[in-house]
Inverse folding.
């Protein structure tokens, strides 16, 4: 895979990692708004903070003067964070006004992003929303009275559809609508849902069903359903009259009574790992383990003893 | 800017000697080795010599036990599907959770078609538990497919031991090993230590031959059905006109790998160790994946905590350094390395993993340059990370706790 980033994306990333003046890496102390999105487990995470010039009487006329980010993520995640901060500072937005910035604006600013990296720009827009919500709480602004739905509840509530990235049905459906996502591949590119184990693609209530609910039924595409492996009957093995349990007991007894005392005289011992049918897996330990004659000891002493004392079909496999 | 190539587990440069060995078969001796006329005999001879060379490389096996293929993936597909089709009475396959997709995905496909597959787990160091392996063996086990060394971490599996245990348990169990990462690095003695292995696959392009040629060793008497049919080539076991120049190249490459193996290996090991020790000393909060296990001498897989791998690769790239990562962002899918996940490496450390793999053309200068650049690349990204306290150059206290709980 070669990088398919635009020159602008590359330039913004390199400026950011080198801390060039005018870039926005960092965290504002006592911010007026703070928002986070993503998690270290999902592979990218963004902490976004901003400061406003407070209006003496009307919080809705606060203006964002400074925006900063800390980002754990790939090249495009860092470039998207940088783009978000630049767009906000240049626009002289009020916090509510800043909500107009969408992931598409970030993508445009970056000169485009590869399809599978669109989620990096979405992460920026999500963190911005969360930060504005935080500002509204601090300033006592009732966003819902302004007709703005912050969807704060849908992350925690609602049926979990994508287990891998912890995404719920209401969230995924909203994103399908907002971003105009038409295929599973587009969903994965934009919000990562279905990008890891892929088990939520076609199961009932999965991504394909959510697409159908939002856009109406889609023409049927070919699905290959996995076949469940059928459990098989264990192969019956003749072990004379002894049950596997009795056989194991008899092996252990023989080892204890005849084999171990001899090995212990030389500072060694034998460890029993497993018994399958009449095959006994064991390993010499202690002084016997490194002994040049270990192979012979196993064959001549351990195997012969067990053949005599337990069953003449016993085979030893030394591990 | 000079390219510093530290991605030799992905592919290697074609050696000049290999290229020279291929050259005659493109135009002058372009003939089809199956043709009857005299002029075609040099192409047929080239295949014969190449088969003998690869047979020597694998410990002096019989040349008729070597099949030429297009790559290791084809060799592995042939071995797995071919064995399943030839042994319909047996329906159980054992493999590991850390195989290359050429085995891992085929095994998943076999499971979908009704076979049972046991994926053996590995521990934090990336090693297998022999007891678990023994427990997995069943009367209907058809095949054990376990890689010789892991492509991401370089951890070596004790294939000699595993194959012996499988064969002593039941000689009808077939043992397949993917030796793509060990060919040219570890001895592959199929008449000695590896005498219990039935099938062994490797590719040319990891040993300085070109991409597009591989080999499959099939021990005489091993029941497998051909994967490609439609011709008598390779004794009817792999149809298709032989890729004469590439096969000649593969033969020259394995000869080269044998000629100065000990010297090259010692040099690569010294470079890798210097690189690894240097990185551990210069960068806080890093760990070497697979460090507790036996590893092939060229591979160093490190996890840099609290930052993401792709951003590291991109900056290394800007300095001309080529490496790879197990991070989700570089995988094409969004899923991070299944190998590191199977080892129980915490998510965050998987995302921050970088694999540096050396080869015969690397120098001390390359290592010096990597040691100079890498710590700076890490510091750049950590300044931006919400989990890192840049002022004190250490993780934030809450991040440490998260690392513990993240696995």
């Amino acid at each position: 895979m070669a990088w398919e980033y635009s020159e602008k994306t590359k330039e913004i990333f390199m400026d950011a990692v080198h801390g060039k003046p005018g870039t926005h890496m960092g965290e504002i102390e006592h911010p007026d708004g703070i928002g986070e999105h993503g998690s270290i487990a999902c592979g990218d995470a963004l902490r976004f903070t901003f400061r406003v010039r407070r209006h003496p009487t009307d919080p809705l006329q606060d203006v964002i003067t400074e925006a900063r980010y800390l980002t754990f993520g790939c090249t495009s995640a860092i470039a998207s964070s940088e783009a978000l901060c630049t767009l906000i500072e240049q626009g002289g937005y009020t916090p509510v006004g800043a909500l107009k910035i969408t992931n598409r604006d970030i993508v445009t600013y970056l000169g485009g992003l590869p399809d599978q990296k669109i989620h990096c720009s979405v992460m920026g827009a999500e963190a911005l929303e969360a930060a504005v919500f935080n500002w509204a709480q601090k300033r006592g602004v009732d966003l819902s009275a302004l007709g703005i739905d912050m969807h704060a509840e849908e992350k925690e509530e609602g049926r979990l559809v994508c287990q891998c990235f912890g995404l719920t049905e209401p969230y995924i459906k909203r994103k399908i609508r907002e971003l105009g996502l038409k295929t599973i591949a587009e969903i994965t590119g934009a919000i990562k849902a279905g990008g890891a184990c892929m088990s939520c693609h076609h199961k009932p209530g999965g991504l394909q069903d959510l697409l159908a609910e939002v856009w109406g039924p889609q023409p049927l595409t070919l699905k290959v359903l996995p076949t469940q492996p059928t459990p098989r009957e264990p192969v019956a093995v003749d072990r004379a009259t002894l049950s596997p349990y009795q056989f194991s007991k008899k092996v252990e007894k023989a080892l204890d009574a005849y084999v171990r005392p001899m090995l212990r005289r030389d500072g060694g011992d034998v460890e029993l790992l497993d018994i399958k049918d009449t095959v006994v897996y064991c390993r010499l330990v202690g002084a016997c383990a490194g002994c040049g004659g270990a192979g012979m000891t196993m064959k001549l002493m351990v195997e012969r003893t067990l053949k005599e004392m337990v069953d003449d079909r016993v085979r030893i496999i030394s591990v | 800017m000079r390219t510093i190539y530290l991605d030799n587990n992905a592919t290697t440069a074609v050696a000049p000697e290999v290229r020279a060995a291929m050259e005659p078969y493109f135009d002058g001796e372009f003939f089809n080795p199956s043709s009857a006329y005299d002029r075609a005999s040099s192409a047929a001879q080239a295949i014969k010599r190449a088969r003998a060379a690869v047979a020597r490389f694998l410990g002096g096996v019989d040349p008729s036990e070597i099949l030429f293929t297009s790559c290791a993936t084809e060799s592995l597909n042939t071995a797995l599907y071919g064995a399943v089709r030839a042994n319909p009475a047996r329906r159980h396959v054992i493999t590991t959770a850390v195989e290359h997709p050429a085995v891992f995905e085929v095994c998943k496909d076999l499971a979908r078609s009704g076979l049972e597959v046991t994926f053996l787990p590995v521990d934090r160091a990336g090693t297998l538990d022999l007891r678990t392996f023994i427990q997995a063996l069943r009367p209907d086990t058809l095949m054990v497919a376990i890689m010789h060394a892991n492509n991401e971490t370089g951890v070596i599996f004790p294939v000699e031991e595993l194959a012996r245990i499988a064969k002593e348990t039941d000689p009808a169990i077939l043992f397949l090993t993917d030796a793509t990462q060990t060919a040219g690095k570890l001895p592959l003695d199929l008449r000695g230590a590896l005498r219990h292995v039935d099938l062994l696959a490797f590719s040319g392009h990891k040993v300085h031959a070109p991409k597009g040629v591989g080999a499959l060793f099939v021990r005489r008497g091993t029941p497998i059905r051909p994967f490609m049919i439609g011709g008598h080539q390779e004794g009817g076991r792999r149809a298709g006109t032989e890729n004469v120049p590439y096969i000649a190249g593969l033969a020259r490459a394995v000869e080269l790998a044998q000629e100065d193996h000990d010297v090259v290996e010692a040099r690569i090991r010294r470079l890798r160790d210097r690189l690894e020790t240097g990185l551990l000393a210069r960068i806080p909060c890093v760990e070497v994946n697979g460090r507790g296990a036996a590893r092939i001498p060229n591979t160093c897989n490190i996890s840099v905590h609290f930052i993401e791998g792709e951003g590291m690769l991109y900056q290394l790239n800007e300095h001309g350094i080529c490496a790879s990562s197990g991070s989700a962002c570089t995988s094409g899918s969004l899923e991070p390395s299944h190998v590191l996940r199977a080892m129980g490496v915490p998510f965050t450390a998987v995302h921050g993993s970088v694999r540096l793999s050396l080869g015969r053309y690397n120098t001390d200068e390359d290592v010096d340059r990597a040691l100079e650049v890498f710590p700076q690349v890490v510091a750049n990204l950590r300044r931006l990370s919400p989990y890192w306290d840049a002022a004190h150059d250490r993780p934030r206290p809450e991040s440490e706790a998260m690392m513990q709980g993240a696995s």
Q: What stands out?
A: Chain B touches chain A through 53 residues (CB under 8 Å). The domain at 261-406 of chain B is CATH 3.90.1150.10 (Aspartate Aminotransferase, domain 1).
